[in-house]
Design a protein that fits this description.
heterodimer; A: alpha+beta; two-stranded antiparallel sheet; 2 helices; B: 421 residues
């Protein structure tokens, strides 16, 4: 089964802090690869760079945002392969961001 | 034998074995709903065939085999789940024993027991707490959806929806119907114990409604704790959990008067306490102690045991109880444990000490917890500070909806006499 680990964090750390955290993220990714759990991953740019697109009833609208007043925002994701939710939880708990943010574990709907 | 008798015999067989058959099917199918469907199919066949052909010698194996075949039929019809089909086909159920004198235990020998995995899945922390309680009662207890809804005073449709949602989550998120790995076992076992104890407590002190005690939920919780004990016979905390329930349950006939009003421990008729339950609990505590792995349930049971084994209210060893609460506060910190420790110290060293301990508590966590005000009122009353006691009882009265408790508090207020002001 595949699970999406959605990483939510409060603030984006300063560039120096991000650089300092890099080895932990690389180690995490390598650990997932070693367990044959890694499928894909990406960090996301800040929500201020977001654009919302709709094409309801053939009419395209493009707007700035969203800027929901949220304490935590989606900062990135890992797509992983796991046998069960318990395995996915183990993988989520090892994520560096689990120490300061929160990880939402969502199974992929395999239609 | 009449058809009606056969039907009730089949129903009894269902209540006794359904949990076990359901657990095995659910594990193979990874889906509680599909397991329930297959099991229901099998019982429909039983209802039709057993009255005609006679009750099979090994009803459990018969039911499981029939359910397995029905599940295979369903999967083939729906053209899905090749892996599940393979796992189902590989499920071995020993042939029913031919010995007519085989005991029930021998008759069950060929039927795998996967209930422990089902218990862990039902009590999984990824599920909402009320859903865990309902699902555990539905799948492992013999309770129907209606019985559970009535016990928790929620509409049948609400509970039924809750069960549908939780079973869907188990299926879609692939919550394993299996025993967790050893490194996760202690914390997951604590989750299971928590659900069983919540079921017991809901029965012991109903949070709403007119009956103070609902024996059915207590009995069910004890039955489930016994199942857990049978499945994990070497876990001292499981022994502690069962002992704790039994110590409390031993006072069930003494805790309320004829009209359902609460009788506090000190005023209870001790001859009404269930000696057999107390002895069983004490034996469990002795067994648990040999493992030398003290935990929150053993400590709570030890405290309940101090009360249960005292022959008079005066002979209760409050110093020992206070010491047990100190250890419990270290093992499982909680403001309620701190409160109980303060109360025990009050009984051990006098209400003045107790009141000082109560004042020292962090009361931000206890601001709407009425037992905190009852404890304060009691100590003030014993110190002769009647007016302060009156206002504390009054506050407690505004915080509980249980009618038996309300009556108790009103009586305490009346016993203080008319207000001086």
């Amino acid at each position: 089964m595949k699970y999406m680990l959605l990483i939510y964090t409060a603030d984006r750390p300063a560039p120096e802090a991000r650089a300092a955290a890099m080895p932990a993220w690389i180690a995490y990714t390598e650990e997932l690869q070693r367990r044959k759990a890694y499928v894909a991953a990406a960090p996301l740019a800040e929500p201020s760079s977001a654009t919302t697109v709709r094409a309801h009833s053939g009419k395209r609208t493009v707007t700035d945002g969203p800027f929901a007043e949220k304490k935590e925002w989606l900062g990135g994701y890992y797509l992983i392969e796991a046998e069960s939710l318990d395995q996915a939880i183990e993988a989520a708990a090892m994520c560096p961001a689990a120490k300061y943010g929160s990880i939402e574990v969502r199974p992929i709907d395999e239609m | 034998m009449t058809r009606c008798n056969e039907a009730s015999r089949i129903e009894r067989s269902f209540r006794e074995d359904a949990g076990r058959a359901l657990a095995t099917l659910a594990k193979v199918l990874g889906d509680i709903d599909a397991a329930e469907d297959a099991l229901q199919d099998a019982y429909l066949v039983a209802l039709e065939r057993w009255p005609r052909e006679g009750f099979p010698r090994n009803a459990s194996a018969w039911i499981l085999t029939t359910a397995k075949n029905r599940a295979i039929d369903r999967l083939r019809r729906e053209r899905r789940g090749r892996e599940k089909l393979e796992r189902l086909a590989a499920l071995e159920i020993a042939a029913p024993s031919e010995d007519p004198f085989a005991s029930e235990r021998e008759a069950m020998a060929g039927v795998p027991d996967d209930r422990l995995g089902l218990i862990f899945a039902c009590c999984h922390p990824a599920l909402a707490l009320e859903a865990r309680i309902a699902l555990t009662l539905r799948t492992l207890g013999g309770l129907t959806t209606e019985e559970i809804a009535d016990a928790f005073l929620v509409p049948h449709a609400t509970l039924s929806q809750r069960l549908v949602r939780v079973k869907r989550k188990i299926r879609e998120a692939a919550i394993p119907l299996d025993i967790p790995p050893p490194e996760r076992l202690p914390e997951r076992l604590a989750d299971v114990a928590c659900v069983l104890y919540l079921i017991f407590n809901e029965g012991y002190l109903a949070s709403a409604g007119d009956r103070l005690v609902r024996f059915d939920l207590c009995d069910e919780a004890i039955r489930l704790a016994r199942v857990l004990m049978q499945l994990m016979p070497q876990e001292p905390e499981v022994m502690g959990l069962l002992a704790l329930m039994l110590f409390h349950h031993s006072r069930r006939y003494a805790r309320t008067d004829g009209t359902g009003n609460l009788i506090v421990l000190a005023d209870q008729d001790r001859s009404l306490w269930d000696r057999e339950a107390i002895e069983e609990a004490s034996a469990l505590m002795t067994r648990a102690a040999r493992h030398r792995a003290e935990g929150p349930y053993q400590l709570q049971a030890a405290i309940a045991g101090e009360h249960a084994l005292a022959s008079t209210p005066e002979s209760v060893n409050w110093k020992r109880i206070a010491e047990l609460y100190t250890r419990l506060a270290a093992a499982a910190p909680s403001p309620i444990v701190d409160l109980n420790r303060a109360v025990a110290l009050g009984f051990a060293h006098g209400p003045g000490v107790g009141l000082r301990e109560l004042d020292a508590l962090d009361d931000s966590m206890l601001i709407d917890y009425h037992p905190a005000f009852v404890a304060r009122a009691d100590m003030l009353e014993r110190l002769g500070r009647v007016e302060e006691a009156r206002s504390a009882y009054g506050l407690a009265l505004t915080m509980t909806q249980n009618s038996g408790e309300r009556t108790y508090l009103q009586r305490k207020l009346e016993a203080l006499g008319p207000s001086a002001r």
